[in-house]
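Before drawing any conclusions, I looked closely at one protein, both as residues and as discrete backbone shape codes, quoted below without any editing:
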Amino acid sequence: MRDALILLVILGLALSAIRRPWIGIMGWTWISLMNPHRLSWRLEDVPVAALMAGGTLLGLAFTRDKRLPFIAPSAVVLLLFMLWMCATYPFSIYPDRSWEMFTRVMKIDFMILVALMLVSSKEQIKWLVWVLVLSLGFFGIKGGLFTVATGGSFRVWGPSESFIEGNNELALALIVTIPLMRYLQMQLPADRKWARRILVVAMVLTAAAAVGSHSRGALLAIAAMGIFLWIRSPNKVAGGVAMAAVAVVLVLFMPEEWMSRMNTIGEYKQDASALGRINAWWMAWHLACDRFFGGGYQIYSLLVFQQYAPNPTDVHAAHSIYFQVLGEHGFVGLALFVLIWALVWRDGGWLRKHAAAVPEALWAADLGSMCQVALIGYLVGGAFLSLAYFDLPYNLLVLTAVTRRWVVEHGRARQPSGPIGVIPTPERRTEAIS
């Protein structure tokens, strides 16, 4: 019954995408993040993502409601990063083993560009946020309840054969989702108290699931986001007390095993896992220095470590988005990768600063602010995890880029004579209206 229901929903979304391709983007995002077919018994081998992408691309070919994807510098740099990865692939150390990941990354990034072409209205942007939150919030709420029920004695894991299958990877995805939950709560009117409280519970449970993953990187990411939110908080005393109270409750709730694992953060020289990561980072550095195009995907083998790592027998994955890209695509790839997120951060800050000048765009200012908070979590937590190609942060690129375009267009409509990309000040806006 569950399998049939999931398949019917996917088929319905794929067929709807032919007429309204933006719905296909929502379906693709849902499948790529939540992996609902992995929750069934008989759909694991069904190409549901290809089915959704096919319906979306067919709709894209016929719809008039589309635009060029290069609406922001971040989108242009993403394309350059894709082209660079295409250039580095022929120089892969293991081209046959790299092919699967190469095609997977290209599909994800291509659909991000398609999303930039199809998502444009305020309603579509908000639907995309809801899809992101519901897709990962499912694991956050379920994992949070599991953590509470078991006293945090067991780790929380993600869907099999996905980017977030591991406990550490799932934890980072959940952390990045929490600010988007907060954004949705901010958009609810004050009289919808129950809806606001439900989202508060969802955020607390999602944080509990992240902590319950026993991920040290997740703890650092949550701390970084908390500090960032506190710095921006207009009421630092109340905000600090509230965050401290939640942190104390979560920490006291966790078992001794969790405390022992977290204490190793400051004792990395005695921790085999941390030393293994550092060894992998040095391997990536030496490899990039030796090979301009990097080593390609799937370079974490004994042969490569024997050639480039300080400890040639301690083979580990990169465990860092930065060293992952460095080792696989060289210094040029790393520069493009970092530039993408710098531009996404800039767009989020632009929204926070300028969207408030347009009364109907206050929601965009909130979204830009929360996207920055989510990006902080990704950039800090990702320093210790191999999630350079995971879909979720690239959806932050979509949100900031299309929302900025929406704000610019509405600001320009209020003052047709103003320069492109400049939001009129309140005084100018009054003159334009009068």
Observations:
- Residues 416-434 have pLDDT under 50 and may be disordered.
- The first helix runs from residue 2 to 19.
